[in-house]
Design brief:
Helix content is 39%, strand content 37%. The protein is α+β, with helices and mostly antiparallel strands. Strand 6 and strand 7 form a beta hairpin. Helix 2 packs across helix 3. It is globular.
């Protein structure tokens, strides 16, 4: 059985430890080790995670039997637009519906803070196998882009989106 905890600043190191395990594994065949190292510090240095939280990102931590299994973060970008900034499941928890549970909990969080219809977007590397997972979760590719992130590196992403509304939820759930 999976459960979710909403992270606080006391969980910054906990999130970083999970990121150090899952992020390099996820991207080892997609981006260079140098870019992975750069992105780990750019996104997952403790000060960065703390700043993200202070600026409104909400981290959700997936647990199974009290053990950390992954995390997601959601950020409100505009009145009716939320960004799923991150969703990672540790390798030991992949293949057992943990990703689906975490995704559903991110949607549930958005619906709790914004009951009206809205849009959820995410950026995902075009070569990441997670693209297929997100399609199964009701996301569709809206556009794509190559985004400079510094140090000569780029994120080559699809921007996927999904409408979150009562009507859409009943269609996706069936």
């Amino acid at each position: 059985m999976f459960t979710i905890e909403q992270a606080t600043v006391q969980d910054v190191e906990r999130i970083r430890r999970m990121a150090l395990r899952v992020f390099p594994d996820t991207y080892r065949e997609i981006i260079s080790p140098e870019q992975t190292d750069y992105m780990m510090e750019w996104m997952y240095a403790p000060a960065q995670i703390r700043r993200q939280m202070e600026e409104g990102q909400v981290y959700l931590i997936l647990l199974k039997d009290g053990e950390d299994g992954g995390y997601a973060s959601v950020e409100r970008q505009e009145k009716d637009l939320f960004i799923l900034q991150r969703l990672y499941v540790l390798p030991a928890f992949q293949g057992c519906q943990a990703g689906r549970f975490l995704f559903d909990e991110a949607v549930k969080y958005i619906r709790e803070v914004h009951p009206e219809p809205c849009v959820m977007e995410l950026h995902v590397n075009r070569y990441n196998r997670a693209v297929h997972f997100y399609r199964r979760m009701g996301m569709s590719v809206d556009r794509e882009g190559d985004f400079p992130i510094g140090n000569g590196f780029y994120m080559n992403d699809y921007i996927m989106k999904r409408v979150i509304s009562e009507e859409h939820e009943s269609v996706v759930s069936s």
